[in-house]
Amino acid sequence: MKTKLVEPVSRKLNVLGQDYLAALNDHLAMFDIDRHFYPLTLIHRNDGQLTQKALAEILGKDKSLIVKIIDRLSEKGFVYRTVNPEDRREHFLSATDKAREVVPHIIKTFEHMNQSASKGISAHDMEIFENVLLKMRDNLADFAKKQTATDTIKP
Hints:
Blueprint: H1 9-27, H2 37-45, E1 50-51, H3 52-59, H4 63-75, E2 79-84, E3 87-95, H5 97-117, H6 123-146
Antiparallel strand pairs: 1-3, 2-3
Helix pairs in contact: 1-5, 2-5, 3-4
């Protein structure tokens, strides 16, 4: 007897995310940012007020990954760090003039792609979609909290 195949929801979301990111990279290739568009827009928006730690929390990413992203954006001339004089372990992130020129194009591309991706989908259905995603995230967080190292799923 064949085992039932169940596709994880995460795979569907991942495929959608990969398609979106590929199209985004194609549209913004001339800026040589390499997929770190959203973090750059957050840094630009909070210019000089956002720390690496806060960016990691907003994005839900590991601090070491954020350091790599900031290093990459710094190497490309889009952001720079400033040490917090009150806590030398903390770094504030600022956008360069180069970033200030590029971010409006990134935001317009986000808007255009979001409209294209949701073409034929009503505003009401998009609201439901976003609410479902949030509810699923909450459900998974609850599921993770309830599981322990000794818990197993019995066949």
